[in-house]
Structures are given as structure tokens and as C-alpha cells.
Amino acid sequence: MNRVRFLSVLFFVIGLGLLAGAFAIWRSNANFAAHASRADGTVTDLSYHRSSKGGSYYPIVQFTTPDGRVVHISGSSGSNPASYSRGDHVTVLYNPASPEQARIDSFGEQMFAPLLLAGMGLVFALLGGGMLFAPLFKRRTNKWLEQNGMRVQARFEGVEPGNMQVAGRDSYRLRCQWQHPVTQLVYTFLSDRVWYDPTPYIKRDTLDVVVNADNPKKYRVDISFLPKSA
User: CA-to-CA distance for 148 and 208, rounded, in angstroms?
Assistant: First the structure.
């Protein structure tokens, strides 16, 4: 369905965008750390920020520049319970030309945002990529099966949910079973998704299935006899 393809492309693009954002933030942090000066800072207080999911404690850090200037900054990464206590000593990275541009030199402060975006990006990219590229691999497999596969008759077992819904439309799959004449193993085959309930249109006890004789787990259930979906 075109809507499925649109969503797959959308998820894939969002995933790539989030990954690019994660890389950009990581690169910016690494570049800042490479050119920053370092100072010994002290946690003077904890700032509590409320949110819809609760609240987090952010450290308030004080440090002194070589020219005697006292600077206060707030950590960019909060936690609950607090990761710091008053009086803790931390290393601070700061821009010598503008000491207010300072960050706590810790893994959480430097990597929280990039890792969060990268994790979200991977989820979207893998989901979208799977939806986008799976049909391509499926078509390649089907083409090979048409040229080299073995056509068998599998006993029709029924119709089951396809576990996918798009625009309020449920999907369905035809299920059938076949016993290998040599190994006597029983294989269960599922058809591609059908976007309407095909039960009233199935007037047969067996379904044609094209299988890879060496690996029957690679197969295609022939549902070309069903009416096309509007």
C-alpha cells in the first residue's frame, strides 16, 4: 500500500535525521573539548527542575578562571536521585574568551544528548528501513522461487490477523500446512498480507505454494486467485 511505503520512507528519513543530529552534537562537544581550557569546579547547589514525568536535579558549579573571575554554571544533564552532592569537585571545560560557555567534563554531560538522539534514530531508521527494503528482498526471493522453486499443494488451515493496520484497515494472512515427502517435517506457511477479510472468497481446501526444495522456510503462497483490493 502507498500509505505503508510513505510511512516507511518517513520513519527512515526521521531516523537518518536523528542520527545526523546525534553526530553533529557529538562532533560539537568533541571540538569544544579539544579547544577548551580546564578548571577545578565545586558543586555549590542543586537545582530542581519539574517536568511532566517528575523532576530532576541539576548541579550548580562554581569555578575560578586564572584571572580570578568566579563563574557559576548549571549542568546540562539532570537526574533523580541527584548524581552530585554539594561540595563535590568536578572538572570544568570552558571557553577562555567567554568563560560562561562552560560544561562539566563528564560522560553524562557530554554524551547524554548524542546517545539519546542516536538511540531514537536507530529505532526509526531500522523500523523504516525494514518496512522500506523488506519488499525489495521479498521480490528478489519470489523471482528466484518462480524460476527455481518447487510448487506444492498445502492444506489450507484458515485466515489469521496480519498484525498490521493502516488507515483503520486491518490486514489478514492465509495459513496453510505442508508435509515434506522426504523428511516428513511439517511446515506452516503464511501468505502475504491481504487488506480485507478473504474468508468468503476461499473455496478450496489446498493452496499452491512455491518452496525452495533445499530450504522450505523460503516460500511464497500463491494468493493470485483472490480478488484485488480496491
Answer: 15
What tens digit of pLDDT does each residue of 119-154 get?
A: 999 999 998 888 778 777 888 888 899 899 999 999
pTM over 0.85: no
What lies within 8 Å, CB to CB, of 7 at 6+ separation is 128, 131, 166
C-alpha count within 13 angstroms, C-beta hemisphere, residue 148? 11
* Dist. CA 78–CA 104, nearest whole Å: 12
Domain extent listing, the chain? 2-119, 149-221
Amino acid at 150: M
Which residue shows C-alpha cell 493502516?
166
For residue 204, what is the DSSP state? Answer: -
Q: Pull the grid cell for residue 143.
A: 523471482
What residue spans of the chain are helical by DSSP H?
A: 2-35, 107-148
